[in-house]
Amino acid sequence: MPLRVYYSQSFWVDQIKTHSSGQVLYRLNPNYYGGIDMLWVAAEALRPITVEDLTPINPEATNKRIVVDVTSQTLSCFEGNSEVYFCRVSTGAKYDMYGNPVDKWATPAGNHVITRKYISLQMSGGTTGAGYDLPGIAWTSIFATGGVAIHSTFWHNNYGDPVSHGCVNCTPEDAHWIFCWGMPEVVYDPGMMDITVSGDESTTVKVIEA
Predict the structure, then answer these.
(1) Which pLDDT tens digit goes with each residue over 149-162?
(2) How many CB atoms are located within 10 Å of the residue 146 CB?
(3) Could you say which DSSP state residue 191 is in?
(4) Are residues 115 and 170 in the same domain?
(5) Residue 125 and residue 32 share a domain
(6) Are 114 and 184 in contact (CB under 8 A)?
(7) Are residues 77 and 110 in the same domain?
(8) Are 16 and 26 in contact (CB under 8 A)?
(9) Which of 8, 86, 164, 186 is most exposed, with minimal Cβ within 10 Å?
(10) Is the pLDDT confidence value at 188 over 80?
(11) Residues 158, 161, 164, 166: is their CA dihedral positive or negative?
């Protein structure tokens, strides 16, 4: 089955060609590290991400931190003691599809730091029959082992309900703001940052259950 492309997804473009009709086509690659599910899409259906889209927000601010409250399903961004951003989120689901309580999808509580950031990332996991493979996830900020991240979500609108597999699901607009505000900064090329390689300073992420 061919991949569908949804509003707010973000992909890497690794080739551009012009059809005999004159139509410009982009080849989309869902995976930063090189994928196998590439697809061609009409250029007019997409909006290229610009350098301005990655402009850091309040880069001079010190003591930035993010607090995710899994009880209230909210995320707050602080600069010192001042809350500068607030949004509804969806964290790890508490029940499986049959209504049984589960712990394996819980968003990990405790203190973390943003370790990697990607403009676009393909995420997959789960088990046979209950797995997932989601390409083009935009504005991804990974903060815990196993790829747990704050990221844009295009497949649901249930913010305020715990429905994820451990990540912190945000609206595209909220995820974009958090991505540009949180450290480390990400430059247009290569469009990602890994502090385990760069050694850059990073923003803390505290997951609490109030």
Answers:
(1) 999 999 999 999 99
(2) 11
(3) -
(4) yes
(5) no
(6) yes
(7) yes
(8) yes
(9) 86
(10) yes
(11) positive
Cα end-to-end span (Å), the chain: 43
Which domain range does residue 141 map to? Answer: 54-208
How do residues 42-91 score in pLDDT, each as one tens digit? Answer: 999 999 999 999 999 999 998 999 999 999 999 999 999 999 999 999 99
Taking alpha carbons only, the member of 25, 6, 28 closest to residue 16 is 25
Whether residues 119 and 78 share a domain: the answer is: yes
Is 134 part of any domain? yes
Euclidean distance between CA atoms 8 and 67, whole angstroms: 24
Query: What's the CA gap between 105 and 164, in Å, rounded?
Result: 7
Give pLDDT, residue 1.
56
pLDDT value of residue 128: 42
pLDDT in tens, 95-141: 777 888 888 889 999 999 999 999 999 886 655 445 567 888 999 99
Contacts 24+ apart (CB under 8 A), 93-98: 93/162, 93/163, 93/164, 93/165, 94/162, 96/130, 97/130
Question: 55: which DSSP letter?
Answer: P
User: Rounded to an integer, what distance in angstroms lies between the CA atom of residue 154 and that of residue 2?
Assistant: 18
- Which 3 state secondary structure label does DSSP give 88? strand
